[in-house]
Amino acid sequence: MRSGDALAPSGCESRGVNENRTSPPPSQVISPQRPLRVLLTTDWWEPVVNGVVASVQTLRRELIALGCDVRVLTLSQGLRSRNEEGVYRLGSVSASMVYDRARIGMPTARRVLRDVLDWRPDVVHSQAEFSTYVWARRIARTLSIPLVHTYHTIYEDYTHYYSPSRTMGRKVVETFSRRVLSRTDAVIVPTQKVSRLLTGYGVLRPLHVIPTGLDLERFRPARTEEEHADARALRASLGIEPGRKVLLSVSRLAKEKNLDEVLDMVAVADREDTVLVLVGDGPYRPELEARAASLGITDRVRFTGVVAPADIPRWYRMGDVFVGASLSETQGLTFIEAMACGLPLLCRRDPSLASVVVEGVTGWQFEGAAQFTSHLSALLDDPIRREQMSRAALDRALDTCDAKEFGRGVLRVYQEARGVRAPVIARREPVAA
C-alpha cells in the first residue's frame, strides 16, 4: 500500500475536483480566535513505510504550513497508549496473520479519548477504514463536527488475503466500503479511477478527487558530486558493475504488487546489460526469489531488503528506468516519486497511471512482453532519448505534483464540509472507547 493516472483529471494535475458540486475557495484558516484544528486518524504510521503513511505525513506538513493546528491519532506498536508531540498512539495488537505489519487497536484508551475531546478538533479526517476509523467516527459524532475520509486502497485487489473467491471478495468490499463511507460528510480519493469505483459501489457521499502531493525538495535528481558519488556507492554495494543499467522498483514485496510479472518481463527481454533492483521488503520475497531462480535471472536481480524512509530518494537516484506491473495502485505514488527524481517510467497499463505516464514523453505503459522489450530497448539503446524523457519526467512532476496544492485542496473540502453541516451544540458522551 506504499503505498497508489491522455491527461484526464485522474492524476496529479487534477486539483481538488469535486464531482458533485463546485467547492468554494478556502476561507481564512486562522480566525481571530484560533487556528483550524484538524485531527488526522490513520491505522498506518511510522515506522511503517507505505503510500498511506507518505500521504498523511505530506498532508500534515502542508496543513501546518497553511496555519492549521494538526494532530494525529494512530496505533502504537505495542499495548501501551501514549501521546507524543501531537501524535496520539493507541495500544494495539498484531494482525500480521491477516496482513503483514497490520495492527488492531485496543477497545479502551480513556485518557487518549479525553485528551482529544478536550482539545476539541474542528474536523476529523480519517485515512483508514478499520481501528482508527471507529475512533474518528466516535469523536466526530460526539463533538458534532465533520468527518472527512480519504479512501486510499482498492481492497478488491487484496481479496487473496481474506476470500478464496474474487467475486465474493468484491461483494464484501463493495458492501463494506458503501457502509463505511455513508457515515462520512465527504470523501477524498486520489484519482478518477477510484472515484468511478466508489460510484459503482453505490457510494452517495460527495467525492473530491485530490491527488497526493509530493515534497519536490526531497524527491529530486542528484545535484552535487557527493550525491552522484552516493548513487555510485549504492550500486557498488549491490555488486552492480559500472556501465550496467539499473531497472528500479520501489515497493512493498507483496503479491498484489504483481512483481512476478516484472521478473517475467526482465527474463524475456534478456538484456545482460541490465540489473533489476527491488527496493523494499515484504512477505512475498521468498516467492519472488524462487521465481527469479526458476527464470534463470538471479544474477540480474537484487533485493535490498528494508530501506529507511529517509533513504528512499537515494535509491531512486541510482536508477536509470523505473519499472512496475502493479494493478492495485490508487495513484501510483512511487511512480510519481521516480519521475521527480528524473526516471523515465515503464509500467503495466493501468487507468490510475494515465496522467502520470505520458506515452513516449515521460515513459510508456506496456501490455505483454513484446511491448515491454520494445520500450525498454528504445530507452536503453538511445541515450539522448532517455535523457530527454528523464527531463520530461522531472518537468511533469514539478508542474503537476505540488504538495502545497494538495494541502489547499484538502482544506477546501474541510471548509465546505463545515459550511454544509448545520451548527449543532456538541454533546459530551461518557469517555469510553
Description of the molecule:
The protein is α/β, with parallel strands linked by helices and 433 residues long. The chain has 2 domains: 17-213 and 402-420, Glycogen Phosphorylase B (Rossmann fold, 3-Layer(aba) Sandwich), CATH 3.40.50; 225-400, Rossmann fold, CATH 3.40.50.2000. It is 37% helix and 16% strand. It has helices spanning 51-65, 110-119, 131-143, 166-181, 192-201, 225-237, 259-269, 285-295, 312-317, 333-340, 369-380, 383-400, 403-420; strands spanning 17-18, 37-41, 69-75, 82-84, 87-90, 92-94, 103-105, 123-126, 147-150, 186-189, 207-209, 245-250, 274-279, 301-303, 321-324, 345-348, 363-366. The strands form 3 sheets. The chain has a 9-stranded mixed β-sheet with strand order 1-11-10-9-8-2-3-5-4, sandwiched between helices. The radius of gyration is 22 Å and the shape is globular.
SSE arrangement:
Elements: E1 17-18, E2 37-41, H1 51-65, E3 69-75, E4 82-84, E5 87-90, E6 92-94, E7 103-105, H2 110-119, E8 123-126, H3 131-143, E9 147-150, H4 166-181, E10 186-189, H5 192-201, E11 207-209, H6 225-237, E12 245-250, H7 259-269, E13 274-279, H8 285-295, E14 301-303, H9 312-317, E15 321-324, H10 333-340, E16 345-348, E17 363-366, H11 369-380, H12 383-400, H13 403-420
Parallel strand pairs: 2-3, 2-8, 3-5, 8-9, 9-10, 10-11, 12-13, 12-15, 13-14, 15-16, 16-17
Antiparallel strand pairs: 1-11, 4-5, 6-7
Helix pairs in contact: 1-13, 7-8, 7-11, 10-12
